[in-house]
Write a sequence for this structure.
């Protein structure tokens, strides 16, 4: 087998013990925050029918699916879990008590040319609320994201959330730009989302491409790009009808965030639209304040997704929070923990004749709830002690011929160096 | 979207909250046992290069891979994780302190025609010891399996482990049956493994097929099938050289198991060979004593796998323990736990004007470490109380106009019915 095959597929990760301890540390925080907000964990297969993901808005996430045909069916590895969760909600709609508060930590896949160190798989913490139309749902999700940042010891000023509403944008465009083609709106948002990556000129090109799904006039496209510069909700308000529902929602959300003590950590930003076609209302993303990294997480309201899958109408809002960018940020800030290995005890038999006694010692300790490494081979004492140290062991149990004859096991506390003896279990 | 697409792909599972709680309950036991034996968790991608799995012994697990081509590379969803773990060991061989004690709980995939309720994915608890040639490693693994059974409250007599050694079989065949074709041995084991499923006549056919990889004479095949009937190690000993290494290993293992208090729960069974081509030595499987179900788990020694992947020689032994059969057994025995939903508190605002106060109550409780469901919409009190009951909530916090005016929140203990008041957090 070639050297290359000793590596995982390009862009994917192996988790050696030290990697897995870090992953578990992060996931434990995801779990803890989700539970503290009353969310229940769910999961779905990493493999789905490709049709579940098929949307027509030029989304990166759909264009980059790992997909294949097997026995005349087309499958794909999920690029995100929301369509699977929507499928699960639709399958039991009517039997589920709303609102649902569901979370998951799925591994998600995308096949793209490898650039800028982006990987082909990541884990994504997802939290979704189904069945609640009001912004109280958005507020809970934003509060959960900040609760995570606080648990990870990120300084209050290190991370912010930018907030916008696609409904707000749609309202401003409804009268003119998109008057005759409301169906082009999702594709328009997907194009706008590329602003930071490709710049305003390239976005103008996408919006005005006469062969494209959007095909705006240059004047209309300019109007859209200008709107994206707004950073003050009251400036936007000036261009909207006084009874704007989208504006009322955003104002209501900021009021609620004040009760959460979060109003100063969230800011209006008209350029945030997110890259998923199915968002319909409020959208948001979290980023490091210095703007050195990509968005840490993103989400929004998607009130029509269930219907497009054949389910009943049901409002929904959620976010996805990958393990990649937060990992980079924690490393930059020196906040990645050490996560050393820990073992309660190592049990060592001096020779083969003492092995049955050592087995009894290990078994008794395990039955008492301890984590015990039993030295398996004919290892020298010195090496066994060094291994115990690497394993982060607290105590070292030794059975030699003398101990066995006296019916005891020698115990060394590896921190204090203190020695004692305990009776051998029968 | 069609009704069918509201379901996960055929043979795969969605995990709704109650399903996931059961999964977590079982996985927590897997984790606890592995840790108590000093094992470290690892993981690898569910997607691997297909070549990692390619072996030529007629194995079901290789024939049933989910595999596909993408951009001129062939990939497969893992059918088992051992080749991935072997790849990881080989990639760092030399830098790893032996023996390694590694475990994982990967989801594994197989594509087969659906029969007898077998699914196309399952989770498999894997424990492997790398770098220890002696049976002390096998003994630890068998003890871990029984530790799990005991944790799950299975009665001591409900489950047993059958034990054999491929080396023992190979020794008996070396002089005659396989004299000139030792390479046929893995395929021979894979064929023998089908004994219980297809019966001795069909196995005879596989062994004697002149076009097959094994192509024994009828007399030799008969000799093999007869050997499989042995259930007493001393009967087998009579047909082996007195200095048989395989025999000494099995006897040594039974002696060690006695020290673990497990000798009476393990029995020699010459028909157990397991269906994976790479096993070389001791093999074992656990089953319900009534033999109503398929094997609960299986494993064995595979001392040559690392070399076949291009790594250095390294002895290894491990087992895989799926989540399917143990689930059936626990259900049969009435040992599946209830796993109800639990929440510490539900917080309810009487009307929109009280919502900011309710938010403050929920936030304060969460900061104290409680799991709190905040009622989000304009819900009637009666319905909110019923929902709190379903959520398994212990306490119900209510803020109405009167409470808000007095700066308090009403607290009802949902178990005792006791009512009290607490000051509203500022």
């Amino acid at each position: 087998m070639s050297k290359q095959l000793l590596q995982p597929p390009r862009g994917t990760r192996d988790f050696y013990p030290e990697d897995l301890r870090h992953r578990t540390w992060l996931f434990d925080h995801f779990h803890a925050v989700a539970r503290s907000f009353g969310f229940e964990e769910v999961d779905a297969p990493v493999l789905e029918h490709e049709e579940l993901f098929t949307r027509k808005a030029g989304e990166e996430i759909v264009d980059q699916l790992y997909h294949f045909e097997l026995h005349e069916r087309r499958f794909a590895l999920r690029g995100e879990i929301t369509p699977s969760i929507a499928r699960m909600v639709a399958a039991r709609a009517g039997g589920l008590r709303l609102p649902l508060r569901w979370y998951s930590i799925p591994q998600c896949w995308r096949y793209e040319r490898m650039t800028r160190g982006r990987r082909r798989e990541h884990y994504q913490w997802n939290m979704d609320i189904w069945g609640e139309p009001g912004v109280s749902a958005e507020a809970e999700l934003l509060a959960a994201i900040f609760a995570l940042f606080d648990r990870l010891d990120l300084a209050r000023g290190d991370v912010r959330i930018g907030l916008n509403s696609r409904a707000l944008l749609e309202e401003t465009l409804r009268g003119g730009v998109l008057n005759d083609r409301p169906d082009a709106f999702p594709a328009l948002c997907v194009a706008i989302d590329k602003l930071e990556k490709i710049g305003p000129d390239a976005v103008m090109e996408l919006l005005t491409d006469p062969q494209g799904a959007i095909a705006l006039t240059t004047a209309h496209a300019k109007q859209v790009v200008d709107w994206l510069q707004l950073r003050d909700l009251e400036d936007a308000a000036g261009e909207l009808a006084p009874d704007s529902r989208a504006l009322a929602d955003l104002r209501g959300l900021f009021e609620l965030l004040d009760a959460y003590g979060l109003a100063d950590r969230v800011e209006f930003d008209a350029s945030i639209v997110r890259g998923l076609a199915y968002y319909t209302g409020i959208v948001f993303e979290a980023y490091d304040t210095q703007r050195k990294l990509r968005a840490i997480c993103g989400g929004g309201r998607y009130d029509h997704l269930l219907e497009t899958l054949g389910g009943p109408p049901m409002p929904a809002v959620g976010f996805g929070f990958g393990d990649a960018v937060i990992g980079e940020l924690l490393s930059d800030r020196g906040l990645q923990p050490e996560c050393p290995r820990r073992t309660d005890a190592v049990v060592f038999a001096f020779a083969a004749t003492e092995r049955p006694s050592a087995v009894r010692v290990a078994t008794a300790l395990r039955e008492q709830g301890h984590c015990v490494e039993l030295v398996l081979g004919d290892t020298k004492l010195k090496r066994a002690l060094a291994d115990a140290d690497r394993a982060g062991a607290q105590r070292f149990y030794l059975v030699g011929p003398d101990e066995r004859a006296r019916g005891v096991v020698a115990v060394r506390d590896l921190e204090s160096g203190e020695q004692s003896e305990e009776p051998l279990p029968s």
Remarks:
- Chain B touches chain A through 97 residues (CB under 8 Å).
